[in-house]
């Protein structure tokens, strides 16, 4: 049996990445001679959700319930998964390669002392179980063999397209109340704060983005960059260093763990162009880099580059734009 952790949205729906993971599981099940697929989720699902999972070929939906499951807790979710697994005897435990999926399965791997492959994009063989997975933020692929059972892995987002099965599963609902130790509850979500809606929407759809990195030097070092963004009717996008230092808010971050942008023009100022940043801006049609280092990766990849101090260049550009506009 293949056991898939399914994440449920606040609206009570199976999130797309989890539906992708179930779709991936079906290929695995077929290669294994038609082994059944069971889903594990947290909370009591509505009929519609159970129906959707059945349409994806799920035989049983195990719903983890009880006080330990009122908010996210990686160790408690892992305890529940393993309790279901021990009873049903699955050969594979998998999830979507989301922050929660990777965290829960890392707990499962640690508790069973088994290896785990994160962010898998395909499997090549069943014995030994061989997978290809993304590493370095998706910039490289590596092959990995999981020799022991159960095979534990997460599926990279969009490795497959989510699609219902030709033959639906029975979709039998089984309510579970796993035993969760107090020690498993020490790290759990106690409150959540929704980001203000649409804050990064403007960034992801902007035609022009002014980027800023550590080269800005300080929170105050953004004044000229913000003025340039205003003059160009552009959005501001920043590197992770900038958000980590608290110079700018997280919703402005571009990159692997921020927004992915595809503007007509991106102007990264004082950004080195680390692979994780590049992952979020490589779709820009034109890149004009401003940097003191002619060998910075962003400079070598840019369409055009100006080598120099952004604190001299940006005020001069702003002054010239203002002068030309009268
Ligand atoms: C798992 C993981 C996820 C990550 N996700 C992201 C992500 O989503 N987005 C992201 O951006 N990073 C991400 N990072 C961090 C990333 O690896 C880099 O550390 C980060 O992008 C570097 O930011 P930076 O370019 O601003 O700083 P630096 O690498 O320090 O570069 C600063 C640049 O500014 C230039 N400079 C300095 N002074 C001036 C000046 N006065 N004028 C002009 N140029 C100047 C320097 O020459 C240098 O090129 C991630 C890292 C990890 C491990």
TrEMBL record:
Per the record, the domain of life is Bacteria
GO MF entries: electron transfer activity; flavin adenine dinucleotide binding
Q: Which UniProt keywords apply?
A: FAD, Flavoprotein
UniProt key word Flavoprotein: yes
Task: Give GO terms for biological process.
Answer: fatty acid beta-oxidation using acyl-CoA dehydrogenase
The protein's required cofactor(s) are namely: FAD
Q: Which SMART domains match?
A: ETF
- Which amino acids does the record list as binding FAD? 214, 239-240, 253-257, 270-277, 291
Pfam families for the chain: ETF, ETF_alpha
The record's remark on the cofactor is: Binds 1 FAD per dimer.
- Give the Electron transfer flavoprotein alpha/beta-subunit N-terminal domain ranges: 2-189
Report the family membership: Belongs to the ETF alpha-subunit/FixB family.
Record note on quaternary structure: Heterodimer of an alpha and a beta subunit.
What does the UniProt record say this protein does? The electron transfer flavoprotein serves as a specific electron acceptor for other dehydrogenases. It transfers the electrons to the main respiratory chain via ETF-ubiquinone oxidoreductase (ETF dehydrogenase).
The protein's name is Electron transfer flavoprotein subunit alpha/FixB family protein
Its ancestry begins with: Bacteria, Bacillati, Actinomycetota, Actinomycetes, Propionibacteriales
